[in-house]
């Protein structure tokens, strides 16, 4: 059974750095073609793609956020970490991670973690 | 970035209706188009990948079509559990993008 679960702080202050962890099971990020993606959704708004990391350690970022984002993986722990610097209240959202096998869409999602940015 | 535009932004339909919604890309994306369903308070669920391939476990009343810039998601006979928001997403570019969503409401 494939599962993913996001974890991180529920509240961060403006200008702080957010660190989110996606812990997964049931698949390996060392398998050719496997990827993990981060997505967020502000309250009442549409989904926004943030970043993706591939089995071969290729990394891809949202054009508008790439200067603030870093994605990494720890295959021994089955974890993908996303950091976002200089947090702002507009970054308040539910953050999701999703398994993303090549050409198969984001087929399994975590439950999401809600992050509020407020002083 | 490739822009994805969904229409309509919302629609009202009755149980049993045939429902169609569209997604248009700002440039050709071949068939690199996925559809998701999201219910309130829940994570999105993959319905269709590669424009027309039905994800395992998804009811056959859902179907997708299109290629290039224009895509369609059809629900052949709307069921009570289908009232939700539907998003398209392109995977042609290494910078992925979602559409703004189509909300399907009860008439």
Keyphrases for this structure?
heterodimer; A: 119 residues; seven-stranded mixed sheet; four-stranded antiparallel sheet; B: 107 residues; mainly beta; globular
Description:
The complex is a heterodimer of chains A (119) and B (107). Helix content of chain A is 0%, strand content 49%. Chain A has strands at 3-7, 11-12, 18-25, 35-41, 48-54, 59-61, 69-74, 79-84, 93-99, 108-109, 113-117. The N and C termini of chain A lie far apart (40 Å). In chain A, the strands form two sheets. In chain A, strands 2, 4, 5, 6, 9, 10 and 11 form a seven-stranded mixed beta sheet that branches. Chain A has a four-stranded antiparallel beta sheet with strand order 1-3-8-7, with no helix packed on it. With 119 residues, chain A is mainly beta. By secondary structure, chain B is mainly beta. Chain B has no helices and eleven strands. In chain B, strands 2, 4, 5, 6, 9, 10 and 11 form a seven-stranded mixed beta sheet that branches. A four-stranded antiparallel beta sheet of chain B has the order 1-3-8-7, with no helix packed on it. In chain B, a hairpin with a 6-residue loop joins strand 4 and strand 5 (45-49). The termini of chain B are far apart. Chains A and B meet through strand 5 of A and strand 4, strand 5 and strand 10 of B.
Main sheet makeup of chain A: 7 strands, mixed
- What is the radius of gyration of chain A computed over CA atoms, rounded to a whole number of angstroms? 14 Å
Described by the principal axes of the CA atoms, the overall outline of chain B is: globular
According to DSSP, the number of beta strands of chain A is: 11
Q: Any idea what the radius of gyration of chain B is?
A: 13 Å
**Share in β-strands of chain B:** over 45%
Q: What structural class is derived from the secondary structure elements of chain B?
A: mainly beta
Q: What is the end-to-end distance of chain B? A: 36 Å
Low-confidence stretches of chain B: none
Strand portion of chain A: over 45%
> Which structural class is indicated by helix and strand composition of chain A?
mainly beta
**What would the average pLDDT of chain A be, to the nearest integer?**
97
What is the N-to-C order of secondary-structure elements of chain A (H for helix, E for strand)?
A: EEEEEEEEEEE
Quaternary assembly: heterodimer
Count of helical regions of chain B? 0
Alpha plus pi helix count of chain A = 0
